[in-house]
């Protein structure tokens, strides 16, 4: 497959303008290295790892592939500076962020030659990180999985493209070559896909959970605030229905229990968790109740995506899950997307109707 050059491929050094997002508990070394080998940009999820595990995971990816890849960071984490140091020392090509990093973090990474690509869900956030020196930005519309906003990708994307002069990567609702061409037509430099890469043979998500995704229709994907107090897109399950019926005291008690489990799983001390909670409260303007509810997310996602326990965990998902029906390898997926994109461009160039 011939490379497709865009501002994203030139910036990151990958062959194709496709990004595999840094999904917690999903985007580990196996998926990231398979994505990189396929010619796309794989992003390693680090928020659910200790700093020591992050370094080991980066080295594992580097041992599997010599192609560029990235690491996703939490800008509000108490040890963000340490994680940035690991990225710089290990020669990681790209740093992505789920929340806007500070001007100082961006500068430190750029001084070390690391490409900085935050993810945002609003034009004003894109304008802010662009002004601070971000190299590119991923814009996620409401269709995207996990934490999401209210503006559809087809509305948000052109708004951001018109507002900033750095490459924009489109996320939310993408799974094939037609979507890639549509994003390019809007002015994007590529697309980012989470659910589509989760549903590959290289993903470590349990087979029974993948089957649950494949069986879902677009109406089986919902948005709830009952997991962590923020809009969170996921598959509709019996557990989600039960959470929707639960009261606030039960939710807060569950949050404290899950916070303790996450602390034990990652080796994170209570003092750092409190510092992270304070940073989250300031950065996202959350109430203390929402901060407590946010403790739910890591362990409930782990229960579903690692342990396969849909009775005790949740399954973050984009609406696009309802359009996906198979489990290709990352190489097969990327080749397919690029072949579909080439065919779509050829059809449009020939003046054929869509």
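^ structure tokens above, recovered residues below v
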């Amino acid at each position: 497959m011939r490379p497709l050059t865009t501002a994203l491929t030139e910036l990151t050094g990958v062959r194709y303008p496709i990004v595999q997002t840094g999904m917690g508990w999903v985007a580990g070394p196996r998926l990231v290295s398979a994505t990189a080998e396929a010619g796309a940009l794989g992003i390693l999820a680090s928020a659910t790892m200790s700093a020591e595990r992050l370094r080991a995971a980066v080295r594992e990816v580097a041992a599997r592939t010599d192609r560029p890849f990235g690491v996703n960071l939490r800008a509000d984490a108490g040890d963000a500076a340490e994680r940035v140091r690991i990225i710089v020392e290990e020669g990681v090509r790209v740093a992505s962020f789920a929340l806007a990093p500070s001007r100082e973090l961006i500068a430190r990474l750029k001084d070390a030659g690391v490409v900085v690509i935050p993810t945002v869900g609003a034009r004003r956030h894109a304008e802010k990180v662009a002004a601070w020196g971000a190299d590119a930005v991923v814009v996620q519309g409401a269709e995207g999985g996990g934490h999401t906003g209210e503006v559809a990708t087809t509305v948000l994307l052109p708004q951001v493209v018109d507002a900033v002069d750095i490459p924009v990567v489109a996320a939310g609702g993408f799974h094939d070559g037609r979507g890639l061409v549509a994003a390019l037509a809007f002015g994007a430099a590529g697309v980012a896909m989470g659910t589509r890469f989760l549903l590959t043979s290289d993903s470590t998500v349990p087979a029974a959970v993948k089957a649950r995704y494949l069986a879902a229709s677009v109406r089986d994907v919902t948005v709830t605030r009952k997991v962590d107090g923020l809009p969170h897109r996921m598959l509709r399950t019996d557990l989600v229905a039960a959470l929707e019926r639960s009261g606030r005291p039960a939710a807060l008690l569950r949050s404290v229990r899950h916070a303790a489990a996450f602390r034990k799983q990652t080796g994170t001390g209570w003092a750092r968790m409190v510092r992270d909670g304070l940073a989250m409260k300031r950065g996202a303007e959350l109430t203390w109740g929402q901060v407590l509810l946010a403790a739910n997310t890591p362990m409930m996602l782990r229960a579903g995506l690692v342990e396969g326990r849909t009775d005790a965990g949740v399954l973050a998902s984009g609406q696009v899950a309802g359009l996906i029906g198979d489990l290709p390898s990352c190489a097969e997926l990327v080749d397919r997307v690029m072949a579909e994109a080439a065919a779509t461009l050829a059809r449009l160039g020939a003046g054929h109707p869509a």
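The two ends are 23 Å apart (CA to CA).
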